[in-house]
Design goal:
Blueprint lengths: L16 H30 L13 H87 L8 H12 L4 E2 L8 E2 L1 H10 L9 H4 L4 E3 L9 E4 L7 E7 L2 E7 L3 E6 L7 E4 L2
Parallel strand pairs: 1-2
Antiparallel strand pairs: 3-8, 4-5, 4-8, 5-6, 6-7
Helix pairs in contact: 3-4
């Protein structure tokens, strides 16, 4: 036996024709598939792809929820607007209140200032009246000691004095000018009318109708006034001897009194 009889051949065994043919067919099928796929891919690459999205259809429950949400949103917006309007109104009211308070304080300060000025003026007038009373007292004493009386009046002054003394005891009536009743300026006007002198009707005007004279230099027939010249609230007639006649008030009527009974503020002379 040959020494190589048991050595296997190194040559590959031949494949059968059917196996080769099958493999060739598979390969060809794969290549065909790749070719078709490549062509299809090329075709798809050349044409744009359009996709259609379908929106979901709202159901009745979902629509109701959307409507309810819209209502809630609207109500919230209305609430915010109402609150904003209230805040704006409150701010406006606060601003107006601040303005009103400032104005009230200003008016109060002005009123206080006026009251203080009036008080000072009144105090000055009281001091002036006190000084005048002292002067009048001295003047009355001097007049009495020197015998000054109605008998010293002559002419028109005597006629005026005689008239007013004749009215003593008659009633005081506001606005009356005689003959049965008088007010203060009505009596003075009527007295001077007897001697042909026309005086203004009211006390304020009568207190500036003649020449201002000092209370220490009075003569019978002079017009006495109480208050300021031009703003007098009462008038009478000096009759001499430290006495005057005037329609005082509804309680006393027309009286003759000493100057110390109600010291006047000043006097004017028209005769």
């Amino acid at each position: 036996m040959s020494h190589t009889a048991h050595i296997r051949s190194h040559r590959k065994p031949r494949r059968s024709a059917s196996t080769i043919a099958m493999r060739t067919g598979v390969a060809g099928g794969v290549l065909s598939t790749l070719a078709v796929a490549g062509a299809s891919g090329a075709a798809h690459a050349a044409e744009p792809v359009t996709q259609t999205l379908e929106l979901p259809t709202l159901t009745a429950d979902l629509a109701a929820q959307v409507a309810q949400s819209a209502d809630v949103t609207q109500q919230a917006a209305a609430s915010y607007q109402l609150q904003a309007e209230r805040d704006a109104a409150a701010a406006k009211a606060a601003k107006q209140a601040k303005t009103d308070l400032a104005e009230a304080k200003k008016k109060a300060a002005e009123a206080k200032k006026k009251a203080e000025e009036a008080a000072r003026k009144e105090a000055a007038e009281r001091a002036s009246r006190a000084a005048e009373r002292t002067t009048l007292s001295a003047s009355s004493d001097t007049g009495s000691s020197t015998g000054t009386s109605t008998s010293t009046a002559t002419g028109s002054a005597a006629a005026v004095v005689s008239f007013v003394q004749a009215q003593v005891g008659k009633a005081y009536v506001s606005g009356a000018t005689g003959p049965s009743a008088y007010d203060c300026s009505g009596l003075v006007q009527a007295a001077f009318k007897q001697v042909g002198i026309s005086l203004p009707r009211v006390s304020q005007a009568q207190s500036t109708a003649g020449t201002q004279v000092g209370l220490d230099n009075l003569q019978p027939g002079d017009i006495l006034y109480w208050g300021g010249a031009g703003s007098a609230y009462h008038v009478g007639v000096y009759v001499g001897g430290g006495m005057f006649v005037g329609a005082q008030n509804s309680s006393t009527g027309v009286v003759e009194k000493p100057l110390s009974y109600d010291p006047p503020s000043g006097a004017v002379r028209v005769l």
